[in-house]
Write a structure and sequence with these properties.
Subunit structure: Homodimer.
Bound molecules: adenosine-5'-triphosphate, magnesium ion
Helix content: 25-40%
Distance between the termini: 34 Å
Function: Required for chromosome condensation and partitioning.
Number of strands: 6
Subcellular location: Cytoplasm
Strand content: 15-25%
Radius of gyration: 17 Å
CATH architecture of the largest domain: 3-Layer(aba) Sandwich
CATH topology of the largest domain: Rossmann fold
Number of helices: 5
Order of helices and strands: EEHEEEEHHHH
Structural class: alpha+beta
Family: Belongs to the SMC family.
Protein name: Chromosome partition protein Smc
Largest sheet: 6 strands, antiparallel
Number of domains: 2
CATH superfamily of the largest domain: P-loop containing nucleotide triphosphate hydrolases
Length: about 180
């Protein structure tokens, strides 16, 4: 399972639609200060369901929408699509390729899509559970995360190992069943 494609439009500094194709392997993103490198990783975090504007370096969710420049008007919508390779069938879905899309308008609520069909954030969370991908997954290690892991309580650290071991979905099903 790996990132195959990222499409960004109207998100942060990316006013025009851009598309990046990735190969299975190591990818480095290079560029001058302020050119948008971190905005790319923010877009990945966001499409995977990040709800905290602060962790996207903003103060409200609207801040992810292109805010305009001297020569260009602000936009009204941000959209990011992330395509993951699923030929290993790690995600429990019958597609060799999965595209997750998130869209937000200035008016508020986000819309989510799985392979272009409208869905809930919950559906995306369930699909990514135990894959290590996802906003809480260990696949995104931001600045300061290593320190956080090392200084966390044993119970918190255990969650990371549980996700790696692939047992989070069973725990979450048990918790849901206990609630009923
Ligand atoms: P560094 O090397 O310093 O880490 P970087 O390449 O990671 O830089 P980013 O932080 O990704 O750069 O990009 C910062 C740029 O994105 C700034 O110029 C900022 O004005 C712009 N930016 C952030 N949010 C928006 C927005 N909503 N609309 C337009 N531009 C934005
Ligand atoms: Mg940066």
């Amino acid at each position: 399972m790996y990132l195959k494609r990222l499409e960004i439009q109207g998100f942060k500094s990316f006013a025009n639609k851009i598309e990046m194709q990735f190969e299975n392997g190591i990818i480095g993103v290079v560029g001058p200060n302020g050119s948008g490198k971190s905005n790319i990783s923010d877009s990945i975090r966001w499409v995977l369901g990040e709800q905290s504007p602060k962790s996207l370096r903003g103060s409200k969710m609207e801040d992810v929408i292109f805010a305009g420049t001297n020569s260009r008007k602000p936009l009204g919508m941000a959209e990011v699509s992330l395509t993951l390779d699923n030929t290993s069938m790690l995600m429990p879905i019958d597609y060799g390729e999965v595209t997750i899309t998130r869209r937000v308008y200035r008016s508020g609520e986000s819309e989510y899509y799985l392979n272009k069909a409208s869905c809930r954030l919950k559906d995306i969370r369930e699909l990514l559970m135990d894959t290590g991908i996802g906003k809480e997954g260990y696949s995104i290690i931001g600045q300061g995360k290593i320190d956080e892991i090392l200084s966390s309580k044993p119970e918190e650290r255990r969650l990371i190992f549980e996700e790696a071991a692939g047992i989070i979905k069973y725990k979450s099903r048990r918790d849901e069943a206990e609630k009923k």
